[in-house]
From TrEMBL:
<keyword id="KW-0812">Transmembrane</keyword>
<feature type="transmembrane region" description="Helical">
    <location>
        <begin position="132"/>
        <end position="149"/>
    </location>
</feature>
<feature type="transmembrane region" description="Helical">
    <location>
        <begin position="52"/>
        <end position="71"/>
    </location>
</feature>
<feature type="transmembrane region" description="Helical">
    <location>
        <begin position="177"/>
        <end position="194"/>
    </location>
</feature>
<feature type="transmembrane region" description="Helical">
    <location>
        <begin position="108"/>
        <end position="125"/>
    </location>
</feature>
<feature type="transmembrane region" description="Helical">
    <location>
        <begin position="224"/>
        <end position="243"/>
    </location>
</feature>
<protein>
    <recommendedName>
        <fullName>Heparan-alpha-glucosaminide N-acetyltransferase catalytic domain-containing protein</fullName>
    </recommendedName>
</protein>
<keyword id="KW-0472">Membrane</keyword>
<dbReference type="Pfam" id="PF07786">
    <property type="entry name" value="HGSNAT_cat"/>
</dbReference>
<feature type="transmembrane region" description="Helical">
    <location>
        <begin position="20"/>
        <end position="40"/>
    </location>
</feature>
<feature type="transmembrane region" description="Helical">
    <location>
        <begin position="83"/>
        <end position="102"/>
    </location>
</feature>
<keyword id="KW-1133">Transmembrane helix</keyword>
<dbReference type="InterPro" id="IPR012429">
    <property type="entry name" value="HGSNAT_cat"/>
</dbReference>
<feature type="domain" description="Heparan-alpha-glucosaminide N-acetyltransferase catalytic">
    <location>
        <begin position="10"/>
        <end position="232"/>
    </location>
</feature>
Amino acid sequence: MIEAVEKRPRLPVIDIARGVAIVAMVIYHLCWDLSFYGFIPVDVGYDPGWVFFARSILFAFMFLVGIGLVLGHGDGMRWRRFWRRWLFLVAGALLISLGTWLTFPESFVYFGVLHAIALFSLLALPFLFTPIWLTALVGAVVIALHFLYRDPLFNAVPLSWIGFWEVPPLTNDLVPVFPWLGVVLGGIVVARLVRGSRVETRLGEIRPGNRLARTLGWMGRWSLVIYVVHQPLLLAVIAPLSMATGAQDAGREIEFLNSCQVTCEATGTSAALCATYCQCGLDGVIRDELWGPIYSGVVSPEEQAQLDANNRQCSALIYPELGAE
């Protein structure tokens, strides 16, 4: 494992695959931002279809990380190249943490995609040179343990990045070691099996020449840079537009009223009384500026007291006898 290692030809299809993954990621984040700021009605963060889409993108990214490690260092470590890329990952991860802490302090990203790639790149290095069966076995165990083991100890933020929580912590992005390191190891296994085979030769002969393929390949080569800059650029456009149009406020109010109406009617209260009750609740949230606690789930004792007082006031509005208690 020395620095002067003969470099194999680059595989354009891998760059194109990275390009497709980063385009999908940009689409997802664009729709998440539009959802958060009230431009589209679907809740991208929780809708099952969108969650599946996000997990598929993440799987592709992590699998390609493993493939990239083999392509870059499978014949011997190129330490200078490795550490240069690793420092860029760490810097990008820190910028994302800082940016989301300033923008979404209650749910900032403390161990997201770039944080995970930086750590997994280190943890996976030994498996570039261990027996392939051992790499496959460890990868399978890492994935399986995520589904087989749970402990409330890992619900806390300091340990949540490991991945054994029972209740996921409040954060806009979390890519825990279990199971996602296993996906990286899976990529390493596949790349090592293909390395030096006829399959690699045939993949190397694929040289798409159309404009779309060249564009995706270019994006794949610069995927880390695109990942770091795309969300700030999206927010720089969408957030001011939301403030100018009032889309976020309108979307929040409609979502609040609909959710409240369903919950209220489930108790057997009439639709008309529930509409009065929910409008009263909405007026209280707006008056007391309680959107943050409601959406984040992080409620201070003072805010909880205000929410309880508003609830009693609105209950007395539809059931006057409660106000006499």
